[in-house]
UniProtKB/TrEMBL annotation:
Ranges for domain VapC45 PIN like: 1-78
InterPro entries according to UniProt: VapC45_PIN-like (IPR041375)
Domain of life: Bacteria
Record-given protein name: VapC45 PIN like domain-containing protein
Length: 150
């Protein structure tokens, strides 16, 4: 499958997706000459003309804008959206985006391989909150089973 990452997807994501999905062709809008800055209304038609099968975006408002919805629908391309919580920037924001794509994209592509028409997919975000991402144990107060001095 030929996948296009929209320009609102962090550029490092393209290389990660290429590494993880070796059987697919992956391009980022910024890697295609003259495509950076293209409005979404034109982007879907261009992507279809270049043989892309799906566009990956984190523009969650795209489906609330009538002209963009019309462009997506008329392109026939699959649209894969992931949500990135704007309050988490930097490394946490990028890590969340990467984790969401890595965890959900293989499932999405399996669904698309069997699809009999256009699909709109929304990947569920990974929760980057501290309490969801790690557990801390103090071995002094709660030692593991074979901890020395237990």
């Amino acid at each position: 499958m030929k996948l296009l990452l929209d320009e609102n997807v962090p550029r490092p994501m393209a290389e990660i997706v290429r590494i993880l999905l070796k059987g697919h062709e992956v391009a980022h809008v910024h890697d295609l000459k003259g495509w950076a800055g293209t409005k979404d209304v034109e982007l879907y038609a261009m992507a279809k003309a270049e043989g892309f099968h799906a566009v990956i975006t984190n523009d969650t408002k795209q489906l609330s804008r009538p002209l963009e919805v019309a462009a997506i629908a008329s392109s026939g391309l699959h649209r894969i959206e992931y949500r990135q919580n704007n309050k988490h920037g930097g490394l946490v924001g990028l890590g969340t985006a990467i984790a969401t794509i890595c965890a959900g994209l293989p499932h999405a592509l399996t669904e698309l391989a069997d699809a009999d028409g256009q699909r709109l997919i929304s990947l569920n975000a990974i929760d980057p909150s501290r309490q969801s991402r790690m557990r801390i144990t103090n071995p002094t107060t709660t030692p593991p089973k074979f901890w020395t001095g237990r």
